[in-house]
Write a structure and sequence with these properties.
The structure is a single chain. The protein has seven helices and no strands. The chain has a single domain, classed as Orthogonal Bundle (Endonuclease III, domain 1). Helix 6 packs across helix 7.
Amino acid sequence: MRLSRKIYSRDLGINLTTRKESELFKWFLACLLFGKPIQQEVAKRTYFEFIKEGLTSPDKILRAGWDKLVKVLDKGHYVRYDFSTATKLLEICEELKARYGSVGALIKSAKNKKDLSRRLQEFKGIGPVTARIFLREF
């Protein structure tokens, strides 16, 4: 069961006002985790496991590899979706780098929020819920 209170970047210690790529990517990562039908506390705990492991950029996630990602997801008790989420994270990070280079470039390439939502949902594994969570802050 999901909690009804919405999660925001500030709840995770993310400062989007800086518009730094590191902060934008952390929010992107958090949205990927919170977009699954999983308890909000589990997604939050898992996000902090990624931070603790230093997995805070597409390159770092790609270098970590599938086995490491599964271990981090399991530490956060994200076990129901650990295999599929590890695969999804690797695919999305690869595609992000190939198509845009960074989350900041993805945001800049969009004409408006509707266009950004469309661009986000072009990634395999990102649907309307994840896009809506991400766009909450823009």
